[in-house]
Amino acid sequence: MIDAARRSQGLRKERTLASPRFADGVFRNASGATPGLRRGSTGGVLRDFLRGGSRRFPSSPLPSVSPLAGWSRRVDAPLRATWLGHSTVLLELGGARVLTDPVWSNRASPVGFAGPRRFQPVPVALDALPALDAILVSHDHYDHLDRDAICALARRGTPICTSLGVGAHLEAWGIEPSRIVELDWWESFSPPTSGIRITAAPSQHFSGRGLADRNRTLWSSFVIESDGARAFFSGDTGLTREYSDIAARFGRFDLVMLEVGAFHPAWGHIHLGPDQALDALGLLESKRLLPIHWGTFNLAIHDWDEPAERLVALAPERDVELVMPRLGEVVVPTRVERVEPWWRTIDAREPCRDLDALDRDSTDEASLPEVTLD
């Protein structure tokens, strides 16, 4: 594995060195701190992980629908959204389509034989996606930057908009540099003829695809705007006061996508979880939330459905409008009147059936490329 820092040359290196977020050879959060587990928490986290129960996995595949029929219908609203699992969302706004953090691989891992495995396939094959105007990659962790998926999508010629430094990975994988748009926080990009603007914004996280390149690339959230709609995509983040700055710059969002899964007390400053996601929504001065980063991979210690149940319990007292569609369900967020708790149809009290059998029963293997080493 070759780390991103050694690939960064020329203009990319100059922009990295000039970034206010880069110091002493690494990117840092706005607070100036280099993130990681809370001091003294490593042992406790490891014990919790090893003692974790069967409810970290669903007992059967989650309900899902094919989005193809929905996508074929004319968009009759300023904003339409399709959650495809984890942090992958297809947004349709202003006549443009934007895909966030596309991950199709069976595992969020540097290898195809180990690491967190997907609960079930993505509800649509990669090659069945409609034409896209932009692809967003928030940071370079394996559950957000899927080498096989991004290389396949790059062959379409769609611009890939990502955080500063991440393009070094993409170029090393053979993606044409002219297709890569790297942004530092508060920088913007408008895909040709799309009518939308994409702005990288702060998040509080970390980066790296191996020990050698930890925090050598930036992590970002994104604001996506058209004439009629404005959406916010968090990527991965802890709770940060910069969310108030985002609200001050952009105003209220028609849809906010915030990560709610993979939380733990020791990770409170690098992952939100459901409680802090609602705090972040308040800082963004917005009401409509589509939860992401849950229900797809076992990346944490909590029950697989705990983020959803916690949000449903808290939302009424916080005056939050939840948008929680089934996988692949095409929705107009402003028309969602109530949450249908579809995840409760799964008997998660029983241990998950053999995951290898789940792989064998899944759809076309071409839609599940294995992650390979850099």
Alpha-carbon Rg, integer: 19 Å
Shape: globular
CATH topology (fold) name: Metallo-beta-lactamase, Chain A
Number of domains: 1
How helix-rich are the residues, as a percent range? Answer: 10-25%
* Strand segment tally: 16
Query: Unreliable runs, pLDDT <50, ≥5 residues?
Result: 348-374
Mean pLDDT level: 88
User: What structural class is derived from the secondary structure elements?
Assistant: alpha/beta
Distance between the termini: 5 Å
What is the CATH C level class, in words?
Alpha Beta
Oligomer: single chain
Helix-strand pattern, N to C?
Answer: HHEEHHEEEEHEHEEEEEHEHEHEEH
Largest sheet: 7 strands, mixed
Discrete helix count: 10
Percent of residues in β-strands? 15-25%
Tell me what the structure shows.
The chain is α/β, with parallel strands linked by helices and 374 residues long. The chain has a single domain, classed as Ribonuclease Z/Hydroxyacylglutathione hydrolase-like (Metallo-beta-lactamase, Chain A). It is 22% helix and 17% strand. The strands form three sheets. The chain has a seven-stranded mixed β-sheet with strand order 8-7-6-5-4-3-16. The radius of gyration is 19 Å and the shape is globular. The C terminus is likely disordered.
